[in-house]
Sequence to fold (328 residues):
Amino acid sequence: IYPGYQVGALLAGLAVLVGLRADRSGDPALWWWATAGVLGGLAIYAQPMHLVGAVCLAVLAVTSTGTGRSRLARVATAALGGLVGVAPWLIWNVRHGMPVLDPDARPVQHPDWGYGDRLANTARLTVDVLWGDDRVRGQVPTWVVVAQLVGGIVLGVLAVMGLVALVRSWRRSAPLLVAVPLMLLGLPVLPTFSLDVDQRYAVAWWPALVVLVSTGAASLGDARAGAAEDGHDVVGPVGTTVTRRWVLVGRAVIAGAVVCHVAAVVGLARPAIASRSAQADAVELTTDLGHDLRRCGIDIVAGDYWAVYPAQWGSDGRFGVMVIDDME
Fold:
């Protein structure tokens, strides 16, 4: 029902990837930047929280090498592509009186949370996605908990290595370095993150975590570490002495962490699947509700957003809907 969170993250990542490809290759063709802009605009259209990708793309366009005129051309081309990608969203808002600018037009009332509350909630959702919520954790054997702990420690170490590597090469890594604090610390500024609903909001932090962990893992196989494979001691990406033995140990630890993570996912999924299979199918029940209400001659439903939205979906969009902000 909510594919925009995941699709938007994918599109934002592709936008930055295409921009990085254009920058690293030195290709002066502007169509790369136009493509990146369209992908960034589509990411915003899929879910506005992925504006982060567009910001990173803008940083990349500005910091890329070249003359001032070439930078201006890159920024303008990417911005034009972004407008094309986000055009459906803009057109809909214009046709409906720009509800995006109306704070009272939100279908859901948000709790009065501060920034710290939203930050803590996003962290909790991320932990629940990585290691399962309390209901699931209480049903898994000890070996799953141990596998999760091993994988978590390795992920944490790789994330720190990745952050240090990005800071050390900040001129070249500016877009990715901007993305990390913008996602981890910037997104909880949005009132949307006040909702304590389900784990789909954790997708906001995934790109930043992927950047940190993948950069840390890649630092073990970069050119300096590659030189160590010849038996030489070299300075590693975090300022330590790297030898061929430690490079191999690091790669083995990463491989072991991947195995532990996969095993833990399987161990967590089994009780979750068993629990869900013993319950009624929510999709079928919601569809039945919509059909039953229609058979009773009901054409309009009114109530709290979370009550009327499933009924609207179950009726295949045939109900008229009235959302009442305050049901108390």
Observations:
- The longest helix spans residues 244-277.
- DSSP finds 13 helices and four strands in the chain.
- The longest strand covers residues 300-303.
